[in-house]
């Protein structure tokens, strides 16, 4: 049996190849969205945190409020985010995903899921059992802080 380091290298190489195969699919909604990396990051943060103030979002993204304003303006024009008055402080504008923004992020996240489901469906029940056991072991290592 190969030593542990070689097995880890083999697994990492296979995982990278799998990521490449999935990334080569140009039907992925990420490729047709025309979002910049910063805009995508904003949408992902809003999907995770919900409605946030402009200053909170600027802090999460790591940019100034002025730079954020321009990015949010472009996302508003695309109907992906909306600004609204904070119900507790009228001076604060909250930013949240619109229905179109939620749908876009969901389609981007789910695209990888569908691809993986298709790949897994090509395996036999016995092979799926091996994958399930391996996945459980990886999750166990991650949960124990060894990752």
Automatic annotation (TrEMBL):
InterPro entries recorded: HTH_MarR-typ, Tscrpt_reg_MarR-type_CS, WH-like_DNA-bd_sf, WH_DNA-bd_sf
Superkingdom of origin: Bacteria
Domain HTH marR-type: 4-140
Alphabetized UniProt keyword annotations: DNA-binding, Transcription, Transcription regulation
Name under which the protein is recorded: MarR family transcriptional regulator
Organism of derivation: Paractinoplanes hotanensis
């Amino acid at each position: 049996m190969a030593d542990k380091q070689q097995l880890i290298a083999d697994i990492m190489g296979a995982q990278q190849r799998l990521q490449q195969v999935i990334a080569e699919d140009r039907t992925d909604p990420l490729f047709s969205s025309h979002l910049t990396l910063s805009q995508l990051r904003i949408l992902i943060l809003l999907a995770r945190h919900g409605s946030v103030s402009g200053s909170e979002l600027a802090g999460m993204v790591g940019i100034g409020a002025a730079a954020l304003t321009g990015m949010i303006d472009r996302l508003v024009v695309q109907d992906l985010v909306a600004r609204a008055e904070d119900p507790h402080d009228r001076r604060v504008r909250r930013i949240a995903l619109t229905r179109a923004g939620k749908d876009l992020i969901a389609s981007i996240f789910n695209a990888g899921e569908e691809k993986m489901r298709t790949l897994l469906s090509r395996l036999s029940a016995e092979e799926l059992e091996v994958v399930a056991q391996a996945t459980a072991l990886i999750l166990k290592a991650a949960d124990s802080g060894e990752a």
